[in-house]
Write a structure and sequence with these properties.
Structural class: alpha+beta
Oligomer: single chain
Helix content: 25-40%
Length: 108
């Protein structure tokens, strides 16, 4: 299993444990993918997962750069064409050294 998939699996378990419903995993579009699409109450949540076992290659937040944000926004717009909703947000979930940090409502 690739490391990214391992981190995503941990995040799915975490989201389920706090009451989220998983709608899609690895939703692909022309520009890339959305790691997880979930539902928290009436809110559709687009989840970007970033992880790292060590800080050798920098903090995982550094890999959520302007280019990645633009590609993710394109995928979200594509998703919303197929599954329209007005109530949505982007969350960034970091997995660092086994610990999960959940940042809700990240700006694109």
């Amino acid at each position: 299993m690739r490391k990214g998939a391992e981190f995503e699996e941990r995040v799915v378990e975490y989201l389920l444990s706090i009451g989220y419903k998983i709608l899609h995993r690895n939703f692909h579009c022309w520009f890339g993918e959305i790691d997880i699409v979930a539902l928290e109450g009436e809110t559709t949540v687009f989840v970007e997962v970033k992880g790292g076992r060590s800080l050798k290659f920098g903090d995982p937040t550094e890999r959520f750069d302007r280019r990645k944000r633009w590609r993710l926004l394109q995928c979200i717009e594509y998703y919303l064409q197929s599954y329209p909703t007005e109530n949505y947000r982007l969350d960034l979930i970091l997995v660092r050294r086994g610990e999960i940090e959940h940042l809700k409502g990240v700006d694109l």
